[in-house]
Amino acid sequence: MAYTAVIIGGGISGTLSAIALRKAGIDSIVHEAYDGTADNVGAFLTLAVNALDALRTLDVDISGLGFDTPRMTLTSGSGRKLGEMAYGTALPDGTVSRTVKRADLYRTLREQAVGCGVRIEYGRRLVDAEDTGDGVLARFADGTTAEGDLLIGADGLRSRTRGIIDAHAPGPRYAGLINTGGYAHGITLGGEPGMMNAIFGKRCFFVHTTHPNGEVWWMANPARATEPTPAEMAAIPPEEWRAWLIDLFRRDRGPAGAIIAATDKIFTGWKTYDVPTVPRWHRGRMIIIGDAAHATAPSIGQGGAMAIEDTVVLATCLRDTPDIASAFTTYERLRRERVERVVEQGNRTGGWKTLGPLARIPRDLIMSLGMKHMARTGNDPSRWIYDHHIDWDGPIRRSH
Ligand SMILES: Cc1cc2nc3c(=O)[nH]c(=O)nc-3n(C[C@H](O)[C@H](O)[C@H](O)COP(=O)(O)OP(=O)(O)OC[C@H]3O[C@@H](n4cnc5c(N)ncnc54)[C@H](O)[C@@H]3O)c2cc1C
After folding, report:
1. Which is more confident, 294 or 358?
2. Mean pLDDT along residues 277-288
3. CA of 303 to the centre of ligand 1 (A)
């Protein structure tokens, strides 16, 4: 179908939607709220093999970014190794999960979108949209408008499109964790570069991995049961983050304290959320995808992957069904069960990071037994997440 699409949001799902739609013969313009292309979040993320498989379907190449992270280890705060496992099954050609800086990823996706003819408009913050019967009209905060046959809300966790589609849509759910992290230099840890090392510390979760160039990339998740207000978060000066984190890891065996001390600039922390079930993903000619529809707690490292998969499936649905309504219904049928299962698993995994001292003992035991069982049987219970492949050329019903 020769539609034109208005895409809201120039993050992962917005830029990739534009690329996927172009491949499906559908034109679009991406409207991003922020001016310019500066992505201020300095953090990194891991694109698991299922995300890389979906990117490959779109001929999007990120192999120049970051580094391979094929395996992960789990360790307790007392320094006991609980197990080691693959970070998803390698793709048939040996491709493994890859860890990249978020800003590099966004820049590359935007360059590749522009390279295949996509227009990205910056400084366009969606405030409202209406279905005009034979099209859709989007209104932006700067007074401009955009028209198309359909509107794709790829506007993230705090999606405006979600509220336009359904004024009663649930918002983000605070997950009881703060995120922070950084890049450490001049510290030698031993161990393999690219190994993702997760430490379930006595008072805080920590994960670190070493770039082949020696830089140590890390994140920490201090638990905070009550959601801090933006003012409370803003009131913590940078040096206080460092002191707080070093104190949280003081009683742990392991490198967390040394890594934090070797980090020049610690990210100002941000709060963790998910969006478990949004009852309405679409109304008329408007639909939400990515975090706007199903934000996943970072604990499972799959939010970006789900957003990427969404774009491939939505493009095939728009290409292969007779009208927008059936494309959206088919899309939801193909995606809802999988993404909600992933969000649920992310929530459960996140819950393991917030346990008190008594509950930590059975948790470590369960993890250790689970990892041993996995090593013995080769049966990874997360395989359904990683082994997912979307068939671009086949009938859409096979895309699950
Ligand atoms: C700490 C942390 C670690 C994570 N780690 C991983 C990981 O390891 N692996 C993984 O796969 N995922 C990870 N994720 C999740 C991943 O980052 C998100 O799932 C992914 O970015 C979602 O992509 P998106 O395009 O839907 O939203 P976003 O990337 O957030 O993009 C939304 C875009 O919409 C724009 N926008 C917002 N409102 C408007 C508006 N009104 N008008 C126009 N534009 C608007 C925003 O400026 C933004 O550019 C992590 C997330 C966090 C917070």
Report:
1. 294
2. 97
3. 8
